[in-house]
Structures are given as C-alpha cells and as structure tokens.
Amino acid sequence: MHFLINTSIIKKSRTAAFILLLIVPVTQLSAEQEHHDHSMMHQQHHQENSVDLRTPLNLPPEMAQHQLSNMRGHLEAVQKIVALLAESKFDDASGVAWQQLGSRPGMLKMCNRIDNEDFKQRGLSFHKSGDALAEALKTKDTNQSLEALNATLQHCVSCHASYKQ
Length: 165
Description:
By secondary structure, the chain is mostly helical. Helices cover 83% and strands 2% of the residues. It has helices at residues 2-49, 61-86, 90-101, 105-112, 117-138, 142-162, and strands at residues 55-56, 163-164. Helix 3 (90-101) runs antiparallel to helix 5 (117-138) and helix 5 (117-138) packs antiparallel against helix 6 (142-162). The radius of gyration is 31 Å and the shape is flat.
C-alpha cells in the first residue's frame, strides 16, 4: 500500500508539473503581451500628442541662431540667479538679472526687429519682468525674489508653449 501512495503522489506531482509547464509560458506570454500592449498604447499616445501646434517664427537663419543663443543665455542667467539665491548673494543675483534678463537697449533693439507682434510683445514683457526681478532681488527678500523669478519663468513657459523656431 505504501508503494501505491508513493506512485500516486509521483503521478500527481508529474501532472502538476506538466500543468505548470503549460501555464507558466502562457502566463509569461500574457505578461509580455500586456507589456507590449501598454508600450503600443504609450507610443500611440505619444505620436498623437507629438504634433507641434506652436506657431513657427520663420526667422531668417542668422536671426534664428541669434535668438536661440539669447534664449540659452537667459536660461544660464536663471541658473546663476538660483545658485546666487542659494548663497543669499542677492546683489550679485540682481546684477545678473539686470544684465542678462533686463530691458537693456540691445535686448530691446533685438525684440523690436521681430515682425511677429505678439512674439515681440512677449519678449518685451519678459525683459520687463527681468527688470522687476532685479528690483525684487535688491530687497533681499527671498519670497519676493522667488515670486519675481517665477513671474519671469512664466513668460518663458508661455512663449515656448506658443512659438517655435
């Protein structure tokens, strides 16, 4: 009888192992299919949302490169301002804001060369916010300075959401 029990257990174990061999690959395939389906949905969503509806500026190539260089300079200025704020160097940060973001004559001249009136006005408003940032930094009030920096960055985000080179 003892031998029959062991044989029965062995048969049941073989059956269970066989069933597992059938189920595990199916489960794995199911998980792989689910991952594939999710990846495809993500890719389709990305493609649907990758249509760039922003308005092109259609600047001449030389002017477009100059504009891009200025915007990279603005981004570097914001980074410097944040670093200086972290060190409580408000006067230095104010100088950076004025020199690199403010309404300096060269910046105003560049903005006024743009034919797109809305883009031009956005640029002028951005530079005025740079002036306001420089003034806020002079107060040495961190909250006021961060609010002014946020206002300046809102101009960047809004413009980049609306226009492309």
